[in-house]
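User: Can you help me understand a structure? I only have the sequence.
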Amino acid sequence: MGRLMKRIVYLMLALALLMGILPAAGCSKNEEDIFGLDDSAKVELTVAGGLENFEALEEVIVAFEDKYPNCKITYEYINEYSKNIRLRMENPSERPSLFLSQSSYFKGEDSMAEYAVDLSEDKESGVDLSGVKPIILSSQKTQEALYCIPLALNARGMVVNKTLLTRYSLEVPENWVQFIYSCEKLKSEGFIPIQGYNDNALMCLFYPAIAVSLVNDPEGASKIKSMDSFEKGSDKYISEYFEKALYLTQKGYIDYDENSLLTDSYESTILNFLQGDVAFTPCTAEMVSGIKKRESKSAAFTSSPFEYEFFASPVGESSMCYWEVWQCLSVTKDCENEAWARAFANFIAKEENLQTLAMVKGLPCAGKSPSADAKYRSLYVLEDKYTAESKQFQIAFYSCINNTLKRICYKKDDEATLKTPGEISEKYEIEMEKKRK
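Assistant: Let's start by predicting it. Here is the structure, written out as tokens:
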């Protein structure tokens, strides 16, 4: 994204603040007051990450450097990041000032907690995290410690060609009945309504509903425990969604052979969607974030552009959304210029900067207010009972679900294809048996 375009994004967000769409920053103190910064001294910080390009972060870096011209922040890409960042941390002279992370980095035998500043409210780090969505922030805690700041969110659902639906007098479906009606109408017009990468299309479509149904079930905790223990017959708790997936394939609303033409869940899936003849592509918000840049690569979209938007999955009584944290930022403990590193963390955690980062990246915002990005607006009007987030649903039986769904949408007439509820249950039992061993 060019510098001019980046400035336009900032102007749009500033306008949103003035109009009251986003909350103002209030009377929060400047970083120099909080962290005792000397803004006359030359300071250099590094942010390490595993993304080759992170324009969204660099945009916030530019804003921080504009405010503090004496501070230079460099983003450093590290290959094979999850392995090599740990090796870097073992050598004090090679530690970055801040690093991209996930909450999982601070759990288990390979925990990096000893290298990160605890940003919990009671630890006097000085970093104000009041601008971050509380339920998302709490999901990142490790035994009450908080070592990372969520930068943006991811979600599973589907990207919808709204123009195609309008052409056939259809609304965006908000529940299973409406979804099936739309699919049948589109199929009668010669379309394969649902298209996506075979390895994850059904998972993106049904996983939110599985998560929400269990998380909000009064007996959900015991059901999850049963499934996490791979108890025989425990698939009955989610069999409804397997049978719905089977229905979609049997009706021809989703087709293995058509989807097998897609070589990955990102580039080829995006370009296929941009052809304009696909109504529903199950995917993640992260995939949707890459659509804008690829519009110009599609001759079909360039000649006949259409309106698209990301929606929650409509495979239940209502649309359902499953939130995940996309990337986090951590501050390296006892690094050189740690006060400045904490100051930058404080700056990026302000809601207006989280909105900027999310807008530039094209992902839902991790801030308290709804995302300023219109293509995610529908996710923020869902009732709480139709949403779940990753900490509520950390499961051991994930692969059992995924491998079963993949076999439901399989090669036509292949003996490995699951064609009845009984066969689905047998396949799930096989997957559980693998886990029990």
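Now, to help you interpret it: The CA atoms of residues 323 and 389 lie 5 Å apart. The radius of gyration is 23 Å. Let me know which part you'd like to focus on.
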